[in-house]
Amino acid sequence: MTLNPVALITGASSGIGAATALLAAQRGYDVAFTYLNQQQHAETIAEKITALGRKVIFTPVDLSKEVDILAWFAQVDAHFGRMDLLVNNAAILRQKLFRDIETEALQHLFAVNVIGSFLCAREAIKRMGTTSGGKGGSIVNVSSVAARVGSPFEYIDYAATKGAIDTFTLGLAKEVVSEGIRVNAVRPGIINTGMHAKGGEPGRIQRVAPSVPMQRAGEPEEIANAILWLASAEASFVTGTILDVSGGR
What we know:
Layout: E1 6-9, H1 15-26, E2 30-35, H2 39-51, E3 56-60, H3 66-79, E4 85-88, H4 103-128, E5 137-142, H5 146-149, H6 156-176, E6 181-188, H7 195-198, H8 204-208, H9 220-231, E7 242-245
Parallel strand pairs: 1-2, 1-4, 2-3, 4-5, 5-6, 6-7
Helix pairs in contact: 1-2, 1-9, 3-4, 4-6
C-alpha cells in the first residue's frame, strides 16, 4: 500500500496556513495542522480536507511552549508515523512604535515567531533526516517582506523576527542538505488575511495596497501555491532560497 505524503502546517485555521493546508490536501498530502484559538475555523478546514479524501488531525498548540510542540509531534507520530513537509507558518504581530514595546510582549513575539519555528524544524529534521532513518523531505518557512523593508512605524520587532527566519533558512538549508532535506522560505508581501486586523489596523490592506507595484494585495492561495511548489519535485534543485511573493514590492 502506498502511503500519502504528510504535511505539517502551523497556524492553519485561517489565512495563508488554511490555504496551504487545503492545497496540500488537493495535491495528495494527508495533513496535520495547528491552531491556537480558532477552533471552529480549524474544524471547518479539517472538514474540507476530509471531503478531499485525505486524512487530517488538528491540534491546539501554543508555539511559545516547547511542551505543546513536542506533544504535537508525538501525536503526528502516533497517527501517521511519518512526515514529508513542514510549513512554519504561524506568527503573531502587533502594530506599535518601537519605543513603546514592552519586554514581555517582545519575548513572547520571538518565542512564537522564531523559537517556535526553530523547535518545529528541529523535530522535523529528527524525523525526516536520512541519518535518523527518514527519507528526506522539505521545510518551508513563511517569512515576510517586512524582513527586507524593516517596517518602521508599524512593527520593527515583527520584521526582526522575520529577518531571523530568513537567516535561519539560509543556514539550515546548508546544514541538512546531506540528510535529504531541502529548506526554503516564502516571503509574502501584503496579503489579504485577517492578520492586519489582529495586528491593530483592520484597514491596513486598503492603505498599503496602492504602494504595491501590482496595485493590489495578494491572496492566501497565491502564497500557498509558492509554498507547495517549493515542496514539490519541480523544485528538487532548490534549497536555501527565499522566494518573494509580493507583487513587486
